[in-house]
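Chapter summary example.
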Amino acid sequence: MMEYKGYFARVEFDDADIFHGEVINLRDVITFEGETVNELKQAFKDSVDDYLSFCAERGEDPEKSYSGKFVVCVEPELIG
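The structure predicted for these 80 residues follows.
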């Protein structure tokens, strides 16, 4: 798993010896690829930066990765 600016990515390696990555936990699709680990890392950063720039140009808030946490507020008397 890779992380940059709060965005997380999943990476796969294919039969053509190329790494393919995708930012996860978003509705928007952000992908990247590289032939080496260093290329892959840079492509991931570039893709996230491009996404953030694109959103800024359009005046839209970029999506943030969801954490998977579920927060519940309860009355103090319910806590042991």
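To summarize the output: The chain has a mean pLDDT of 90.
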